[in-house]
Amino acid sequence: MSEIGSQSATRHVPAPDGDTPQPPAEPWDLVTVPVRQGLEAVDILRRGSVPAVGPVVHDGTCDTLGFLVPPGTAAGWDMPGSACTRTSGRGLRLPALPELPEPAGDTPRPAGWLLPPGDTDPVTDPVVLREALGEAARLIEAADGCR
Asked: HEC profile for 105-119?
């Protein structure tokens, strides 16, 4: 899959005094999906026997949600209806508000946190995310078929 942007982030760990961030950890990749499917997936991931969702961002217009996943996920991501942006280790540092790349790689859109870092796991497991997104798509298809 091709890179659709150079969005990345690294996690700051609070210093002992709680004010100054420590040096950043490693970058992440970003899986973006339509907001409806993403919200369903967040619910599925949070309802599991062990909640398994990392930080989630939304674009400023709430058209898409982005799940932070481990670096390297984009190389093997092939789920229809979603995109995974490979990081390059540059750019945004958490917990600042990120910008999501436009699907065509144009100007980034402002974003906000649906689930901020620190309140969740550091990243979402891509295998678990893929299952939740698939289940979410099936739920949406069933709900839309009942109208």
From this structure: CCCCEEEEEEECCCC
Per residue in 97-130, pLDDT tens? 555 555 555 666 667 889 888 867 789 999 999 9
Count of Cβ atoms closer than 10 Å to residue 137 Cβ: 20
Long-range Cβ pairs for the range 40-45 (8 Å, 24+): 40/135, 40/136, 40/139, 40/140, 41/65, 41/67, 41/129, 41/132, 41/133, 41/135, 41/136, 42/114, 42/115, 44/132, 44/135, 44/136, 45/124, 45/128, 45/129, 45/132
CB 28 within 8 A of CB 68: yes
pTM metric for this prediction? 0.71
